[in-house]
Amino acid sequence: MMMSEFVERTGFQPTADEYEQIEDAYYNFDGDKDAFCKAFVEQGGELKIYKARADEIARLRSQMLEVEKQLKKDVADRDRRIEELTAELDRELEWKPSTGTGTNMEQSRYEKLASSGRVMTDEEAKAFIADECGFAPEKIRILHEASTYEVNKHLRLRVAATFDRAPVYDATDWNYVRFDCASFMYELVNGELQFYCC
User: Fold this and answer.
1) Domain boundaries, the chain
2) Is 167 helix (H, G, I), strand (E, B) or coil?
3) Which end of the chain is less packed: N or C, by CB atoms within 10 Å?
4) CA torsion 86→91→93→94, rounded to 10°?
5) Rg of the chain (C-alpha set)
């Protein structure tokens, strides 16, 4: 019996895999295709297949949850191992805070300044730098972040922390601007021009 004949007689559309099982049952059935299809309908064959589908979905869902659980465990184990190896490598390389690189103002002091001072626009900051340091305003590029660095025993640098920093003015000796000009990196810290190196 062809699947189309089965569908026409029962009104039920099985999947290809389901039809293979139906066909096996038909070959073991003592009767013709009409009798088989009638028995299929009367004996709740469609409901049995729906139940088998639901059971298979539940089995696959359970299997999927187990796989997901194992995957999460594997990822956690891998991440923990990466952390261990990274810490071991860091100890071997003897990383320590670098002096003379990155920002020249501690973050705690910047936060204190920002809480009492006025945030400048980039244009205001350019004008301030031009007045204080004599740079051409059109060559100044205001930057809004600064970093601290660490150095290892091979004198290689890496970023230790990065901070969002808007230009701030409170007084001529209490201010901060991070900027680049003509391929050089600077900070204006409390009215003093300092190189920003990285």
Assistant:
1) 3-43, 107-195
2) coil
3) C
4) 140
5) 37
Which of 123, 112, 127, 128 lies closest to 165, judged by CA?
Answer: 112
Distance of alpha carbon 162 from alpha carbon 148, whole angstroms: 7
Residues 6+ apart with CB under 8 A from 9: 33, 34, 37, 38
pLDDT per residue as tens, the chain (198 positions) = 899 999 999 999 999 999 999 999 999 999 999 999 999 999 999 999 999 999 999 999 999 999 999 999 999 999 999 999 999 999 999 999 999 999 999 999 999 999 999 999 999 999 999 999 999 999 999 999 999 999 999 999 999 999 999 999 999 999 999 999 998 999 999 999 999 998
CB 143 within 8 A of CB 179: yes
Amino acid at position 119, single letter: V
